[in-house]
Amino acid sequence: MTTTAKTSELVIDISEQICTLTLQRPQLANALNFDLLEALRHTLGELRCSGDFRVCILTGAGEKAFCAGADLKERATLPPEQVRRFIATIREVTDRLADFPKPVIAAINGLALGGGTELALACDIRIAADTALLGLTETSLGIIPGGGGTQRLPRLVGKGRAKELIFTARRIAAAEAAEIGLIEKVVPSAELAQQSRQLARNIAQNAPLALEMAKWAINYGYETDLLTGLQLESRAYDVIIPTKDRLEGLAAFQQKRKPIYRGE
Ligand code: COA
User: Fold this and answer.
1) Could you confirm whether 81 is annotated as catalytic?
2) Which of 9, 74, 81, 138 is catalytic?
3) H or E element that contains 177
4) Taking Cα atoms as reference points, which of 159, 204, 207, 208 lies closest to residue 181?
5) What is the distance in A from the centroid of ligand 1 to the CA of 20?
6) Which one of 16, 63, 74, 118 is the catalytic residue?
7) Residue 73 alpha carbon, nearest atom of ligand 1
8) CB-based burial of residue 200 (10 Å sphere; 0-12 exposed, 13-18 middle, 19+ buried)?
9) 28 lines ligand 1 (CB under 6 A)
10) Angle at 223 between CA 242 and CA 42, to 5 degrees
11) How many angstroms separate the CA atoms of 16 and 53, rounded?
């Protein structure tokens, strides 16, 4: 099934069991204004229970930018209470991405600054064009990362590196981002769409409930001690044991064929 929808400046395409969300404000480096942020928040809520796809890709329109963070032109017009509302909304968006029951890939097609890097940090896997630049630039604007960046960046790259990046507000190239573990893979810009789609296809062929529970165990287990984490893993496994897909995996192995998983 192929579905394409557009809410405000967010394009949603569902095909081959992959849902691609594209930030569509290329003339403003895909910066997040209230409308786009709200579209993302709403869409992630709606898609949460959808059975139409198995993996999500988040990307930006055009070749220049993934997302240049908060719309600073709009921000200049906002009174403090609206700024607070914006920050609460971007937090909700990044939390919804991190907690999305299906794997989410950030396909970073260009600049990812401030909230742009924070969106990517909230995804499960980050793959970037070799032309991409990333950075939490907020302290240079007199603010701090508010979309989870102060928490998710240290968890990926370590406390010292995160502090160095946030305190200096410096932008780093994709190669350095990969070296420090901020992103998982760098590919030639022209191959980004195809390679992120291939990655999504590779994931989508595996059992949906197993993917969901593996993500759950990693996410929640990472935030606790090993013994508690191992308990979480056992509980996640308990969810999988009664599934039809587990039996299908065994049957396909015995019959030397590809498994057909239904998420049941
Ligand atoms: N908010 C609103 N508009 C933005 C924007 C943002 N975060 N980032 C870029 N734009 C706009 C520019 O103002 C410009 O619009 P204009 O043509 O109406 O002036 C357009 O996008 C293109 O950007 P421009 O600056 O001309 O391109 P560039 O290649 O010289 O630089 C950036 C692009 C993204 C590096 C630069 O605009 C920038 O540093 N933006 C701020 C990014 C940032 O720090 N975000 C964190 C926010 S917390």
Assistant:
1) no
2) 138
3) helix 174-179
4) 159
5) 24
6) 118
7) 2
8) buried
9) yes
10) 75
11) 8
State how beta strands 10-15 and 111-113 pair: unpaired
Say how far apart CA 41 and CA 58 lie, in whole Å: 13
Tokens 């935030």 belong to 223
How do residues 16-39 score in pLDDT, each as one tens digit?
Answer: 999 999 999 999 999 999 999 999
pTM equals 0.96
In terms of Cα–Cα distance, which of 42, 7, 54, 29 is closest to 202? 54
Which two tokens mark 24? 């569509």
Quick check: CB of 212 below 6 Å from ligand 1? no
Report which DSSP code applies to 172.
Answer: E
pLDDT digits (tens, 9 = 90+) for 102-161: 999 999 999 999 999 999 999 999 999 999 999 999 999 999 999 999 999 999 999 999
Contact present, 64 and 27 (Cβ < 8 Å): no
Nearby residues of 16 by Cβ (< 8 Å), 6 or more positions away: 197, 201, 204
Query: Which of 72, 94, 109 has most ligand 1 atoms within 8 Å of its beta carbon, as the pocket-test mutant?
Result: 72
Q: At what angle do helices 115-122 and 80-98 cross, to 10 degrees?
A: 30
CB-CB contact of 114 with 136 (8 Å): yes
Q: Is 179 a catalytic residue?
A: no
Residue 22's φ and ψ, nearest 5 degrees, are -120, 125
- The alpha carbon of 73 and the centre of ligand 1 are apart by a number of angstroms equal to 9
Q: How far is CA 27 from the centre of its chain?
A: 23
Query: Hunting for tokens 């291939």 — which residue is that?
Result: 198
- Distance between CA 256 and CA 239 in Å, rounded? 26
Handedness of CA 85, 5, 195, 131 (dihedral sign): negative
